[in-house]
Amino acid sequence: MKKQIKLLSVAFSAALLLGACTSSSKTLSESSAGSETSSVSSDTSDTAKTLVYGTGSYGVGMSDAGLNPHEDYSGWSCVRYGVGETLFRLNEDIELVPWLADSYKFLDDNTLEVVIKDGINFSSGRKLDAAAAKECFEDLIAVHDRAPKDMKIQEIKADGQTLTFVTTEPNPALLNFLAEPYTAIIDMQAGVDASKNISGTGPYKATAVSDSEISLVSRDDYWGGEVSKKNITVKSITDGDTLTMGLQSGELDVTSGLPYASYPLFENDNYNINSVATSRAFFLQLNFDNELLTNKNIRSAIAMAIDKEGFVNVLLGGHGKVANGPFPMKDSENPTYSFSPEKSKELLANAGWSDSDNDGYVDKDGKNLELNYITYPGRTELPILAQSIQANLKDIGIKLNINSTENYLEVMKDSTTWDIFGSAMVTNPTGNKGYFFDMTSLTESPKNRGHYSNAELDELAKNLSTTFESEKREEIAKKMSDILVDDCGFIFVSHLQMSLVSKKNIKGLTPMPSDYYEFSKDLVIE
User: Exposed/middle/buried for 169, CB within 10 Å: 0-12, 13-18, 19+?
Assistant: First the structure.
């Protein structure tokens, strides 16, 4: 009963922060005021219906502002909103299937040949052939921060509709990376304008783009079939109250990132709630520049103090699954660090920390154990997770200071300002589990915020990068996951159940496990 009261207290606090209608909330018109866009005229004819989509997953804070797939994570926006497409895509089972590609074959371990479907045009009117694709991939490799290391391209050849990739070394995951949104094929002759708008092959084209809003119109020449005539506005809204009120008032037609406390308001016949389990994990990176966190006893104490089930079942209302590793797979169902505050206290005592002055916090050499936690509000769940962990750590005598800011990347450049980074990431976006480790967990990983380093993990990553056989790849990925979890290099809390909440007249809006695809030709406003 005591545990339940504490969880409900945190849930109530989180609801006040993110789910209730408070005076700090903005109306949609206030949220959009002052945004600047570079635009062309959109179709406002009587036959074009309009859809307004509010989301916390677009904008500078999410590193996906604009539609240029060759910049940061903006490829996600390009593909999500139906402007760009990739050679391959992932189906409901996270299996690779051809998209712009018609067929493919490996000529040898270093050479992949892809035949592109004929009869596809960019929204600019230019035909998509191998030469156009080659121009796009060459620009991607030249300017993108992740693509060169991921794809390992030595040469690209174009002949009619046949595109050939030659790699510097065997790259078993190349097909997977050709489903990564940064490989969305855009018309480089049309270019990228000042607002980061592009010409793609998708069912929609953008008429205006800014860091906080995108305007889209349906294409009447889409290669994949007829697209119902419509205008779409994507609005970046990170405030949960504003999302809730916008959907209630009718100003929004669809929302993503709605506060969990708001879901009961829309569980009726006037709305659709479409949900899917994903590999998006909520997890913690620890700052190993802080000597305190190089002590495994302290890391383990933090891991065992976190009530993951309480977070998922009470604070998220069951919209998720407890995580015991980076991937929501069966071989990680047995937790290494089960919830045990008493064991956490023992581990802290083993590290020399105890509450000598009875102030509720453990101390050592006259100083309390105090840590700084940084996160961002772009995903509704993250501030709630921060509050939950703050309460959990207080129970074992650790004081946690929370900083939830959209400017988190700038703040984190000074490693003395933070100790724990709470974030969310799709850990298996392309069906290649090596992606998560390559991005976050290896000594040289670009998103290894806390400078974690493990020689065994690095060596296994090298083996994975040259292994083609799928069962062997799964075995290596399992070993890597076990090492990361056992070492408390990262702490995994939960996996997301993604939901899109819409008015009942919105059809064909189905979330996907990969979290890449939202607007398709099948999206209809009745």
Answer: exposed
- Pairing relationship of beta strands 96-98 and 271-286 according to DSSP bridges: unpaired
β-strand partners of 421: 285, 374
- Inter-residue contact 494 to 308 (CB < 8 Å): yes
Given a contact cutoff of 8 angstroms between Cβ atoms, the answer to whether 129 and 160 are in contact is yes
Closest to 373 in 3D by CA, of 364, 365, 384, 359: 384
Block residue for tokens 């995580």: 323
Which of the four pLDDT bands, split at 50, 70 and 90, describes residue 18? very low
Contacts of 149 (CB under 8 A, 6+ apart): 438
Beta bridge partners of 498: 276
299/487 Cα distance (integer angstroms): 9
Which among 493, 503, 426, 31 has a CA at the least distance from the CA of 283?
A: 493
How distant is the alpha carbon of residue 108 from its chain centre? 33
Q: At which residue do the structure tokens 């969880």 appear?
A: 7
E-assigned strands of 416-489? 420-426
Q: Give CA separation, 132 vs 99, 123, 153, in Å.
A: 16, 13, 17
Tell me the pLDDT band of 332, cut-offs 50, 70 and 90: low
Question: What contacts 467, CB < 8 A, 6 or more positions away?
Answer: 172, 473, 476
Distance from C-alpha of 115 to C-alpha of 373, rounded to nearest angstrom:
48
d(CA 54, CA 242): 9
Provide the 8-state DSSP code for 137. H
CA distances for 202 relative to 1, 53, 54, 170, 316, angstroms: 53, 18, 21, 31, 34
Residue 408 has pLDDT above 90, yes or no: yes
Helix (H), strand (E) counts: the chain? 15, 22
Instruction: Identify the top-confidence range among 9-13, 45-49, 253-257, 316-320.
Output: 253-257
Read off the pLDDT band of 154 (50, 70, 90). very high
Which helix (DSSP H) or strand (DSSP E) does residue 284 occupy?
strand 271-286
Q: What are phi and psi of 263, to 5 degrees?
A: -55, -40
Could you tell me the domains of the chain? 37-82+193-275+499-525 (3.40.190.10), 88-183 (3.40.190.10), 277-497 (3.10.105.10)
* Angle CA 516–521–526, to nearest 5: 115
3-state secondary structure 82-112: CCCCCCEEECCCCCEEECCEEEEEEEECCEE
